[in-house]
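[#protein-structures] MJ: dropping Ribokinase here for a structure pass
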Amino acid sequence: MAVVGTLNLDLVVTLVRRPAVGETVLGRTLTERPGGKGANQARAAAAVCTTALVGATGTDAAGDRMVSDLAAAGVDVTYVRRASDTSGHAVIEVDDSGDNSIIVISGANGRLTADDVVSALDALRPTVVMTQLESPREVTEATAKWCHANGIRFLLNPSPTAHLGPSILSGADPLIVNQIEAAYYAEASEDAEPTELARALLSMSRSAIITRGGDDVVVATRDSIDILDVPKVDVVDTTGAGDVFAGTLAAHLALGSTLLDAARSATRASADHVAAK
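AK: finished. structure tokens for Ribokinase:
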């Protein structure tokens, strides 16, 4: 399988609570770790099946570190382009409840082009491809178009939210969103019933999954809408949990699992991730 997406060096600040607008608070710790939605998803997928990442990073030390980290995790980094730009970074605030706020600076991720994507996917010939919305729009469009033209399963994690046309959304199998993102694409209230949101998402995609934090996971296909319980764990840090879910889900689909079974495996992996110290 292949993931088309971003690589960022995460700067993680832990603090008692995140500041309000105009407020200054003292942080506890500052750590650096490789991240980015594409890289996170590829790393999670590589723990399950053979996975390649198509992306771009800088020629700086941050880029060296991220590419090395992915390779060590078993990700094929052949098609990670090294661009003459600063590598992408993300500033993440994590409070005592484990919740987070994230600011992303794209940097070299913006250098990935549609031609890069098509060339890489033509060479890789994956059976499953997943992408997100942190990359330039032309990258998302090229990924969706390539999958449609080649009859390849296309997974879309449309985050951060942005307006998307039917040429992208209609091929998503599944569309993977959280509750807030689901409400955005369904043009509904964030308090809407999960099954109501799922039906709205099914009207624009082939299948859909809504992750709802520690509550449950909604798996929607043309045949049924199922609700999966989430294992109860002591949450340490929710950063990257959605990416672990998406990457694990994609990998199990690549191995032939049904959507429901793949979602069960992804739910367990995500719970283990947020509880890890």
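MJ: nice. The mean pLDDT is 93.
AK: one more thing. The chain is about 35% helix and 25% strand.
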